[in-house]
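Holo prediction. Input below; ligand is iron/sulfur cluster.
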Amino acid sequence: MDDWLVPDLNRAACTRCGLCVDYCPTKAVEMVDGAPVIVRPGDCAYCGQCEEMCPANAIALSYEIRPPATPRPKD
Ligand code: SF4
Ligand code: SF4
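Structure of the complex:
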């Protein structure tokens, strides 16, 4: 299995509204048999749109992406 960084899906909480699919800018998530599935994990930009749009808090990013630390100038 590939180790892609993708949102966590809580299937029990999901109401299957499809909003995460509608708003995913890369089409990484699709409805499969009526439920959202990250079908193209390599295309997930980890942007958080799905988390923002989900009315049930059923899809969420577990990790915070930060830019690399700015190197300190040398003395
Ligand atoms: S984090 Fe962004 S790219 Fe990844 S599934 Fe959610 S909306 Fe799509
Ligand atoms: S937006 Fe949330 S509740 Fe709606 S299908 Fe996606 S994960 Fe499920």
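The chain has a mean pLDDT of 93. That is the main takeaway for now.
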